[in-house]
Write a structure and sequence with these properties.
homodimer; alpha+beta; Arc Repressor Mutant, subunit A; 2 domains; 4-stranded antiparallel β-sheet; 10 helices; DNA-binding
DNA sequence: CGATCGTTTGAAAGATATCAAGACTCGTGG
DNA sequence: CCACGAGTCTTGATATCTTTCAAACGATCG
């Protein structure tokens, strides 16, 4: 609850804000608070107006879309260090998604109007936001390409390979959260996800709960039909 | 082929560049050319490195994703006036998609390195790019939500309603391009799209080639299960 | 007129979702 | 320590949706 390190030290330590003027840094500090949030906590609701620009300092956050009928799906995952939906904040438009903490997180919350003001006066901050927005935009494009061009099993295989790369390229990996959430991130039901995983069980992977051992990397890669543009360089 | 109006006049007339310093405007002019491109022309290829920041001045451009297996789908539509994939240009990363002119377009092409340089020295340009990026990001999020949360018929109904709104809210509308392209934009095959349209034929719409008459707006809206966040205010 | 392209339609196959039940894990409290 | 219950995951049967393949139709254009 209480900031262990003074706010200004945290901000000074962030590469994201390294190039701010001292004046800008002061304004930023005055308009910010640090919060700890427990796993499961909702940071904001779909449809809400952004009052803060949230910066994820530690941990990861799910952005969930909800249909009129009430079903909910993971649309985006934001991991520290990154901005939470700067697109909504800079355009002062309602959030399209709900933000829920995947794990215990710490966030920096900057008053939205101050943040927008700083954007005009601090070229460095503008540059940071541009970099962040472009990265998030490209991630969304990749996801659309995946949804439109790849069937379920390919998406699952690709997901496992991406996970492997993020976990130090070892053939043993741990699913980062519940399978139901992963399924919705991949655009399928948990039943389908479960079935696809079991279909991989015979020769390609070995699964035990959240633990997955990749037995036949070559086969998995072949199954995913990787595209270096979408998936990054070969793992 | 040849610029009818001098380059500097075109740039001066664009709201997008209205706030540039005179110095910035000079640099921009020196690094830019205006091009006319015919319908069907490919402006750049998927995987290419961005040499220019393209500004669509007139017309519209399709951004197409291609899978390893070779099938191609419309991922995004960019209409004048807007930037073509600033996310790739500012991050100096390969284009994720191919750009193809839907119709005859005119574009302004700015050398990419000069554009990135101006971004640092011209706060107004940075602000423009932030606005453009955030708009495009939100469009991608909406598309993902549509793909993940809505079945085919809802997507088609929603598309028709969106089209109606863009065409002065009249109940008679014209499909902007071939049905096959619209189908891929909606994430389905042309056969599925055709079947869904015929299923609407009986009472809800009347279709004749590219012309569509909406007979029962209420039913169409109900079928689309609209979400004001995704679809905008009620048409 | 014949060729090409976009579209529609039909029949069949395949993929995915849904519904329902059972298995499993894990934390709680008796 | 065990039993319970909540939540998650798996599995099976079925239904539905979507794609695929194939053919025919229609328009446009040389």
């Amino acid at each position: 609850m209480q900031p262990l390190s003074p706010l200004s030290d945290v901000i000074a330590a962030l590469p994201m804000f390294a190039g701010l003027s001292s004046e800008g840094r002061r304004i930023l500090c005055d308009a910010s608070v640090i919060q700890q949030a427990a796993r499961g906590l909702v940071l904001f609701e779909q449809g809400a107006d952004p009052n803060f620009q949230t910066v994820v300092l530690k941990g990861a956050v799910h952005l969930l879309g909800r249909s009129v009928q009430g079903q909910e799906m993971v649309i985006e995952v934001v991991e520290a260090p990154d901005l939470l939906l700067p697109a909504a904040v800079v355009s002062d438009s309602p959030y399209l998604m709900r933000a829920r903490c995947i794990e215990d997180v710490s966030v920096l919350m900057i008053k939205a109007d101050v943040f927008r003001g700083l954007l005009a006066s601090e070229p460095f901050l503008a540059h940071t936001v541009i970099g962040c927005l472009s990265g998030q935009f490209r991630a969304m494009v990749r996801q659309i390409m995946t949804l439109k061009l790849r069937p379920g099993p390919q998406r699952v295989a690709g997901y496992l390979l991406a996970l492997m790369r993020r976990q130090r390229n070892e053939t043993h990996l741990t699913l980062p959260y519940e399978k139901g959430l992963i399924a919705s991130q991949l655009g399928m039901t948990r039943e389908s996800f479960s079935r696809i995983l079991t279909s991989l069980q015979y020769g390609i992977i070995h699964m035990d709960g959240q633990q997955i051992q990749i037995c036949d990397l070559r086969a998995l890669r072949e199954l995913s039909a990787p595209d270096p543009l979408i998936d990054g360089p070969d793992p």
